[in-house]
């Protein structure tokens, strides 16, 4: 019996030396690591961060889709140029580059229209829909047909009020563009008319539309001096030899855009 007891004790001693320690008949995996718990407490962040005073006010027009109405004649519809090159489209491109979102413009314009014909077209178009902003460029055909300046003044004032109505009664959302000088174009030079007389008459009609526009406190963009560059730069004239090219319309858009952005990018 003593011999058996000694033998059993010897076996247990050898087992312990080999590292085999049975616990509830289970063994720990060889790669099991027991990490010491992190009981240290980190100091609380009691330092107050300064307020960010550089935050800009939220743009009320951010993400808003704006509706645009263009009123006019051939210079608005873009006679002899592709649609992406017409003045309203060029203006939209400039505004979108600055971050505005513009729906495809609605255009009420036709080649040859005078102020009275534009007024008639508006009347037959039905009820007045509201737009975020409106451009107005009209009068070259009044001059071309030799109509009276008094009639032009009366009808232009009506169109200004109509444009304000379209702009939901907000005159700061109306943008008038002056009449370009067609007399300097190849067509104008070959028309048999006195170019100097054409320029003087264009200036007289523009004096009227500018006076009436500024009297109401409406934005006015004078593109007439630049339009006269077509006298020596054929790239500013469309293929028909009379109407502006996309290059000239691009210039118009670039000149009108700042006035629109001043209203919508506050």
TrEMBL record:
It comes from the Bacteria. GO terms for molecular function: hydrolase activity, acting on ester bonds. Keywords: Hydrolase. It holds the Pfam family Lipase_GDSL_2. Residues 70-249 form the SGNH hydrolase-type esterase domain. CDD domains: SGNH_hydrolase_like_1. This is SGNH/GDSL hydrolase family protein. It comes from Pedobacter psychroterrae.
């Amino acid at each position: 019996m003593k011999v058996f007891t000694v033998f059993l004790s010897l076996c247990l001693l050898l087992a312990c030396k080999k590292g085999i320690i049975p616990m509830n008949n289970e063994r720990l995996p060889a790669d099991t690591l027991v990490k010491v718990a992190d009981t240290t407490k980190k100091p609380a962040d009691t330092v107050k961060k300064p307020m960010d005073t550089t935050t800009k006010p939220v743009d009320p027009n951010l993400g808003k889709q704006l509706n645009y109405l263009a009123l006019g004649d051939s210079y608005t519809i873009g006679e002899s140029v592709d649609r992406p090159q017409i003045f309203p489209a060029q203006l939209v491109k400039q505004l979108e580059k600055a971050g505005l979102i513009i729906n495809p413009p609605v255009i009420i314009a036709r080649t040859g229209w005078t102020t009275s014909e534009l007024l008639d077209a508006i009347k037959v178009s039905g009820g007045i829909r509201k737009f975020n902003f409106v451009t107005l460029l009209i009068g070259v055909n009044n001059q071309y047909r030799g109509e009276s300046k008094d009639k032009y003044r009366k009808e232009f004032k009506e169109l200004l009020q109509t444009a304000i109505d379209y702009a939901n009664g907000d005159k700061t959302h109306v943008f008038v563009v002056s009449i370009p000088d067609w007399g300097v174009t190849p067509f104008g030079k070959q028309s048999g008319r006195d170019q100097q007389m054409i320029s003087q008459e264009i200036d007289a009609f523009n004096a009227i539309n500018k006076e009436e526009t500024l009297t109401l406190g409406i934005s006015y963009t004078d593109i007439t001096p630049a339009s006269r560059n077509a006298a020596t730069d054929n790239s500013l004239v469309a293929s028909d030899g009379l109407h502006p090219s996309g290059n000239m319309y691009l210039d118009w858009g670039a000149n009108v855009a700042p006035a629109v952005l001043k209203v919508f990018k506050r």
